[in-house]
Design brief:
141 residues; 4 helices; elongated; binds zinc ion; five-stranded antiparallel β-sheet; 2 domains
């Protein structure tokens, strides 16, 4: 279905209309080619973090938790990953140990992780990382 006015326009200015159509087609192709060469950057990965001292929960883009200036707006402390104690249900922020794996042996590494992820209230080792999706699912229930 081509509107009557467009038909008239086409009859009068054939070349102009064809040129415009060609230009649009060219732009589409150019755009596709550009996108093929420079694909759009992937969306930033948003992770849910928890302040290690006041427990404030926030969604942030932090590529490296040890190398970020992001601090809690409420208390000024740093954010950690959300962990939950499976024994007492306490949720807390955990900053993973900043240890270069090649500077320690396997057992020292495991100890450092255990110390960081033990429940601060009941000292249980039975804790689990909680992601933002888990938290959202919990809220929805
Ligand atoms: Zn805080
Ligand atoms: Zn606990």
């Amino acid at each position: 279905m081509i509107p009557e006015s467009l038909k008239k326009l086409y009859a009068k200015h054939k070349i102009v209309v064809l040129l415009i159509l060609a230009a649009i087609a060219f732009l589409c192709l150019a755009h596709a080619a550009f996108r093929a060469i420079f694909p759009p950057a992937p969306p930033p990965h948003i992770e849910t973090f928890k302040c290690v001292s006041c427990g404030d929960v926030k969604e942030l883009v932090i590529p490296d938790i040890h190398n970020t200036s992001e601090r809690c707006k409420k208390c000024g402390n740093r954010y950690g990953y959300v962990y939950k104690c499976l024994d007492c249900s306490y949720e807390f922020g955990v900053v993973p140990p900043d240890i270069k794996p090649w500077t320690v042996n396997k057992y020292q590494m495991m100890d450092a992780w255990k110390n960081a992820t033990n429940c601060p209230t009941c000292k249980s080792e039975n804790t689990q990382r909680v992601t933002g999706q888990d938290l959202k699912a919990k809220k929805a229930n």
